[in-house]
Amino acid sequence: MHKAKYCIVTCIDFRLQKAYSNFIESRQMLSTCDVISLAGCSRDLVKPIENWHKDALLRQIELSVKLHNPDTLILLDHQDCGGYAQDSTIAQGLTVDQDRLAHSEWGKIAKAALLEKFPGKSVQVYYFQLDGKVEEL
Ligand SMILES: [Zn+2]
Fold it and tell me: Using an 8 Å Cβ cutoff, are 81 and 102 in contact?
């Protein structure tokens, strides 16, 4: 087996590519992580519009775990996410504080879901502002 240290889930949003790259490189995660990218990042895990959306994301994480056995699962949610705004689960146009608070609530649910589904794995959830500022939720 090819062992990875991390399985990282990101949003597809191009506005975050540089911040995501900086995060991965600055934390020495480059070439040690699987990366799954989908619109909304954790959104399909916590509030899928269709049930299969959740299954599709979990299948990708399960494959990462099966193929590369990462120690840590990491979700990189972000400010002003269109995936979360599809049905105004987190509306667009909020202040950063309002947006971060909403992501914090959903992030807790996402973290609990991953810990339950993948016992023994460490789970981390981060919030990225559009200006590149990052904090763990
Ligand atoms: Zn997004």
Answer: no
Kindly report the pTM of this predicted structure: 0.95
Residue 79 one-letter amino acid? Q
Q: How much distance in Å is there from the Cα of 83 to the middle of ligand 1?
A: 5
Residues with CB under 5 A from ligand 1 (ion): 11, 13, 81, 83
Q: How far is the CA of 100 from the centre of ligand 1 (A)?
A: 13
Please name the residues in contact with 41: beta carbons below 8 A apart, sequence gap of 6 or more: 9, 10, 11, 75, 76, 77, 78, 81, 83
> Tens of pLDDT along 11-35?
999 999 999 999 999 999 999 999 9
Structural domains in the chain, CATH included, are 6-136 (3.40.1050.10)
Q: What angle do CA 90, 109, 68 make, to 5 degrees?
A: 110
CA 79–ligand 1 middle distance (angstroms): 8
Q: What is the CA radius of gyration of the chain?
A: 14
